[in-house]
Write a structure and sequence with these properties.
Helix content: 55-70%
Largest sheet: none
Order of helices and strands: HHHHH
Shape: globular
Bound molecules: zinc ion
Number of domains: 1
Low-confidence stretches: none
Oligomer: single chain
Mean pLDDT: 87
Number of helices: 5
Strand content: under 5%
Structural class: mainly alpha
């Protein structure tokens, strides 16, 4: 299983998604409020096409090696974002 591919198919606002766009606190709050009302109220590309649900399932099934790889990928994506600023 390609761990990076799975993570990229998570909700675009999921903290584990290496493609997650920069969000300020207001974005995060807005989204939290919307999802509190209805869990299916995310309209990012991945949720809209149903990819995020499947990706979420796959992440749940990651074995230890895949979990470690996931942590590395997330760590690297944060570093890259920081370098751009
Ligand atoms: Zn989404």
């Amino acid at each position: 299983m390609n761990v990076k591919w799975v993570l990229e198919n998570l909700c675009l606002y999921d903290e584990r998604n290496p493609d997650r766009p920069e969000m300020d606190d207001e974005d995060v709050n807005d989204r939290a409020k919307r999802l509190a009302k209805d869990k299916n109220q995310c309209f990012c590309d991945n949720c809209f096409h149903g990819c995020s649900m499947l990706a979420d399932e796959l992440v749940e099934r990651f074995d230890d090696r895949e979990k470690n790889e996931m942590v590395d990928i997330i760590k690297n994506s944060r570093q890259n974002t920081n370098q751009l600023q």
